[in-house]
Amino acid sequence: MSQKPKPGTLCVQAGWTPKNGEPRVLPIYQSTTFKYDSTEQMARLFDLEESGYFYTRLQNPTNDAVASKIAQLEGGVAAMLTASGQAANFYAVFNLCEAGDHFISASTIYGGTFNLFGVTMKKMGIDCTFIDPDWTDEEIEKAFRPNTKCVFGETISNPGGHVFDIERFARLAHGHGVPLIVDNTFATPIHCRPFEWGADIVTHSTTKYMDGHATAVGGCIVDSGNFDWMAHADRFPGLCQPDESYHGLTYAKAFGKGAYITKATAQLMRDLGSIQSPENAFLLNLGLETLHLRMQRHCENAQRVAEFLQADPRVAWVNYAGLPGDKYYELGQKYLPQGGCGVIAFGLKGTRQDTIRFMDSLKMIAIVTHVADARTCVLHPASHTHRQLSDEQLVEAGVRPDLIRLSVGIEDIDDILADLSQALGTLA
Ligand SMILES: *Cc1c(COP(=O)(O)O)cnc(C)c1O
Fold it and tell me: What is the CATH number of domain 293-427?
């Protein structure tokens, strides 16, 4: 192809290019090990002097093909698949931070990530300061410390639907010599490519829209290759000083733009082992082949649902960046001009009992702990995903106690609206 393929083409074609006589469809390399003829050759692989497969915990051809597709979709140089989105976000930060280090995260993030950063990583001696992304630059600047190693946020926050001002946070992070990590799960590279706005590293829970059918838990980390680690060598010794567990190899020198993902693979995946199974990677790839079509339909349906809810007198409020007048409408127009995602947050007038009655009255729309798959579903974060957070933390995470998270699927819009309408009808 003479021109660079567009995202819709990458979804279908990228990552797997069979040679003459090879399978047209990406095969599942269901093998933990790979065979070599000489001791010497295998030794070179272990020393990272040659690239090749030897053990699936480190690399597998099925996983690599899918990681390559996601890297191309995001416009990055390299990617790795992980067993879950949780593993992706943990590795993304832990690849830069060690005990005694600090990082900054937007408070408006997924509940599981909030807990990982605020509780579990704290036990490892890594401190996270949560900031309200609506704060002024001056207020945010105060959160940086000499030992700060990165800044983190979600393109569209789960579940609140806040849109992250990526360009602004990239400027703030770079001003302090640290990279910006963006969790792009909800927008997907079909609707936002954070690297184009200055982000350095992107993460995904591929469990959501990328898989799209609720079949496989998975995650991914993509590196833009843009952050100059050696220019901040003192701050990132893990990348810029010799790794004794690899005979004194220095990642940033030996691998240049591939340093970050190589370190995450060779060191973190080797030692922590949260690999995605090749079979899940295969399912993820099937999902990716239609991502561009599904995202379009999710957004068309969600826009209609958001407008319908906003017009209903029984609905107290609706958060959806596609609604004119929404707090994030302008940021949405900037970062998500073709639409954001299918997830809407809203609240009903009345009591918590009314919220529960509404949810229990839905017929086609199911109550599930999931978002962002083909089937419309609904969840009450305060009683489900965010249950472990205190009321104070709920507010900090942008989750109002009455918030209903509605993940609009790709069914016929008339049937989605009819179900919502009959459930609203059960309220006084
Ligand atoms: C679901 C989710 C995660 C966690 O992903 P898992 O695949 O469930 O581990 C992280 N970030 C966001 C934005 C999510 O929606």
Answer: 3.90.1150.10
